[in-house]
Design brief:
Layout lengths: L4 E11 L4 E6 L4 H6 L2 E6 L2 E12 L3 E5 L5 H5 L5 E5 L6 E2 L4 E2 L8 E4 L3 E11 L4 E7 L2 E7 L4 E5 L4 E4 L9
Parallel strand pairs: 9-14
Antiparallel strand pairs: 1-2, 1-6, 2-5, 3-4, 3-6, 4-5, 7-8, 9-10, 10-11, 11-12, 13-14
Length: about 170
């Protein structure tokens, strides 16, 4: 079984004589990236795993990958998307309880009052919020997702309980 990969950033250019890469990582994934042992980079259309030797902040984020020891080797990895395995990304970010809602696809969604609503089929990112798309009583419903609505999140059991506004499911 292959791990699901999540795009978290990209490489920009080489740095120094040791084969480091300047990288950009989306803010919501910085902690996950800093704690990761392996990063995936698309090489010739396929995501390949690379073990992280070192990550440091020198004004720019600098990534040193094992067995990439020269600027020439690192150059082959510039301007590429960076991925982490889904299992290496925490859904709840402890600093301020930020949720990465896109990872909730497949979770069973419950309302605190009425119980099971259905399985989250997709998450749509809108300019001001995220919406969970759920099949409920034979129709597609859009449920707003916000950290303040979360009552309980069970990552192991893939369940999320929300405190939904009264009448939302009747719309």
């Amino acid at each position: 079984m292959t791990d699901k990969l999540i795009g978290v950033g990209f490489t920009t250019k080489t740095h120094g004589a040791q084969g480091e890469l300047k990288i950009t990582v989306k803010e919501e994934y910085l902690d996950d990236f800093a704690n990761a042992d392996v990063v995936f980079i698309n090489v010739q259309g396929k995501p390949l795993p690379f073990f992280i030797e070192n990550l440091r902040d020198a004004g720019d984020l600098l990534l040193k990958i094992e067995e990439v020891d020269s600027p020439a080797e690192a150059k082959n990895l510039t301007s590429k998307e960076l991925f982490l395995r889904e299992k290496d990304i925490k859904i709840i970010k402890q600093a301020g309880e930020v949720l990465t809602f896109e990872l909730l696809v497949g979770y069973e969604l419950f309302d605190e009052q009425t119980g099971s609503i259905g399985k989250i089929e997709a998450v749509e990112a809108m300019p001001t919020q995220h919406l969970a798309i759920v099949e409920h009583e034979g129709r597609e419903v859009f449920i707003p997702l916000h950290t303040q609505m979360v009552v309980e999140l069970d990552e192991k059991g893939k369940r999320i309980v929300l405190r939904l506004p009264e009448g939302l499911l009747d719309l």
